[in-house]
Design goal:
This protein has helices at about 1-25, 35-45, 45-55, 80-125. By secondary structure, it is mostly helical. Helix 1 (about 1-25) packs antiparallel against helix 2 (about 35-45) and helix 2 (about 35-45) runs antiparallel to helix 3. The longest helix is centred in the C-terminal third of the chain and has 46 residues, at about 80-125. The protein is rod-shaped and about 105 Å long. The termini are far apart.
Length: about 130
């Protein structure tokens, strides 16, 4: 039974050390580079773990906490909501401009139809309708 507990303790320390090396930011490792620490941990598991905890681990800090950006639902993502609002405003502005252009075209057409007749009348070309 003591052998099993010793084996489990050693395995736990080695795995914890390896995970700690992997999770630590590469700029915070001391001694050698992060990939070199991983190689040392794999080649010399017990000694590598001990060396990591003594010499390689960043001083005065816990293992580097990595923040992962998890996918969020569209209605919880502020960037998506901003883009959606911008798209809605752009569409509303485009619709408003199209409506104004149609109104302007209609006025110009109306004015164009009326001005041609008044122009003909001003020249004295009376047509019988």
């Amino acid at each position: 039974m003591p052998r099993v507990l010793l084996a489990v303790a050693v395995l736990t320390i080695v795995v914890y050390g390896l995970v700690d090396v992997i999770r630590t930011d590469r700029r915070l490792t001391r001694g050698i580079s992060k990939p070199a620490w991983i190689v040392v941990m794999v080649v010399l598991p017990v000694i590598g773990a001990a060396l990591w905890f003594i010499f390689g681990r960043p001083r005065g800090s816990r293992p580097a906490q990595q923040t992962f950006r998890h996918p969020t639902a569209p209605d919880d993502d502020p960037e998506f909501l901003r883009a959606l609002e911008l798209r809605r405003r752009n569409q509303a502005e485009a619709d408003r401009l199209k409506k104004l252009k149609d109104q302007l075209d209609a006025r110009e057409q109306k004015r164009g139809d009326g001005s041609d007749e008044s122009h003909d009348d001003a020249q004295g070309n009376d047509e019988v309708k």
